């Protein structure tokens, strides 16, 4: 039994598909299947039920896969310990970000992080909050950058910056003539919002409800860029986080982006990591660079 075989088993348990599991582990499907067959022979049990239509885990296979996750998590912790003593700002980190942050924040901070920590390699993953939290818990990811607070007490957090919301309206809307808007300007307005699963949806709903606005229930967007296109087509208005407001406007962009006057609605962006992580110093130094860049 070796760690690679345990990684293969966990991948099959989560993907329920040999080809996808093999791609995830960067090996061929025959290699993955052969290694798992070897593991079954060594343990003397059937871990996976194979047929032409689907892949299913046996009861013992599910139990072994769960224990394998814990083994891989502890092995990762051992590597983190040795890395932290050698050089906390070297090695690899798997960083997860939410979709409403990743495409806008990364161009701002990656050059700074690369310049300050040239020996640090970041593997970037984009998922919605619930998926990121599960992956952090299972040690599939080391660090998250997302909107805070998160409803859990099993992780540690570091504040990075406060991000204001802006109002995005079509060029022909009466609010487009304003240099700044107040929350009361949203009263009785109908807003375009993201679909369920995005934490930004809940934050935007809080702003809308407090201002007397309602949601357009006939449409929910999969991304901020979809929302932007809908507003550009004159279909409605929406709230955008400040980082998503373009610094340079394309000729085809007829949207008016308007900041709020005080009190400015905003969201808190920060880091989340497992409590007691031996790479805590790594995260703190990264956070300091990001804070300085975003201040």
Secondary structure elements and pairings:
Blueprint: H1 3-15, H2 18-25, H3 29-43, E1 48-50, E2 55-57, H4 59-86, E3 91-97, H5 102-116, E4 120-126, H6 129-137, E5 143-148, E6 155-169, E7 190-194, H7 199-211, E8 214-221, H8 224-232, E9 238-241, E10 256-259, E11 266-274, H9 280-294
Parallel strand pairs: 3-4, 3-5, 7-8
Antiparallel strand pairs: 1-2, 5-11, 6-9, 6-10, 6-11
Query: Portion of residues in helices?
Result: 40-55%
Largest sheet: 7 strands, mixed
Strand proportion: 15-25%
Helix/strand/pairing category? alpha/beta
Low-confidence stretches: none
Write down the overall mean pLDDT.
92
| Total domain count | 3
Q: Give the ordered list of helices and strands.
A: HHHEEHEHEHEEEHEHEEEH
The count of β-strands is 11
- Enter the CATH topology name of the largest domain: D-Maltodextrin-Binding Protein, domain 2
Please tell me the CATH architecture of the largest domain by its name: 3-Layer(aba) Sandwich
Shape: globular
CATH class designation of the largest domain: Alpha Beta
CATH superfamily of the largest domain: Periplasmic binding protein-like II
Radius of gyration from the CA trace? 23 Å
N- to C-terminal separation?
50 Å
Question: What's the tally of helices?
Answer: 9
State the gist of this model:
With 295 residues, this protein is α/β, with parallel strands linked by helices. The chain has three domains: 3-71, Arc Repressor Mutant, subunit A, CATH 1.10.10.10; 82-161 and 268-294, Periplasmic binding protein-like II (D-Maltodextrin-Binding Protein, domain 2); 162-266, 3-Layer(aba) Sandwich (D-Maltodextrin-Binding Protein, domain 2). The protein has helices spanning 3-15, 18-25, 29-43, 59-86, 102-116, 129-137, 199-211, 224-232, 280-294; strands spanning 48-50, 55-57, 91-97, 120-126, 143-148, 155-169, 190-194, 214-221, 238-241, 256-259, 266-274.
């Amino acid at each position: 039994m070796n760690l690679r075989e345990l990684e293969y088993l966990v991948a099959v348990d989560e993907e329920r598909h040999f080809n996808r599991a093999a791609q995830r582990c960067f090996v061929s499907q025959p290699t993955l299947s052969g290694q798992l067959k070897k593991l079954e022979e060594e343990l003397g049990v059937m871990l996976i039920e194979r047929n032409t239509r689907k892949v299913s885990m046996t009861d013992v296979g599910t139990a072994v896969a769960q224990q394998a996750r814990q083994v891989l998590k502890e092995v990762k912790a051992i590597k983190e310990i040795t890395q932290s003593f050698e050089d906390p700002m070297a090695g690899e980190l798997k960083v997860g970000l939410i979709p409403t942050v990743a495409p806008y924040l990364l161009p701002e901070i990656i050059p700074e992080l690369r310049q300050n920590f040239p020996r640090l390699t970041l593997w970037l993953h984009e998922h919605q909050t619930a998926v990121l939290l599960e992956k952090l818990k299972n040690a599939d990811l080391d660090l998250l950058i997302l909107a805070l607070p998160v409803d859990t007490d099993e992780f540690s957090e570091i504040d990075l910056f406060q991000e204001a919301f802006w109002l995005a309206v079509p060029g022909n809307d009466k609010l487009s003539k304003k240099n700044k808007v107040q929350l009361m300007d949203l009263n009785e307005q109908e807003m375009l919002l993201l679909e369920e699963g995005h934490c930004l949806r809940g934050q935007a709903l809080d702003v809308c409800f407090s201002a007397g606005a309602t949601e357009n229930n006939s449409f929910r967007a999969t991304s901020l860029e979809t929302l932007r296109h809908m507003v550009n087509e004159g279909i409605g208005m929406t709230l955008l986080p400040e980082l998503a407001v373009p610094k340079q406007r394309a000729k085809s962009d007829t949207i008016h982006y308007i900041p709020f006057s005080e009190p400015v609605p905003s969201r808190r962006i920060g880091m989340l990591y497992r409590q007691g992580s031996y790479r805590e110093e790594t995260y703190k130094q990264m956070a300091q660079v990001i804070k300085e860049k975003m201040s």
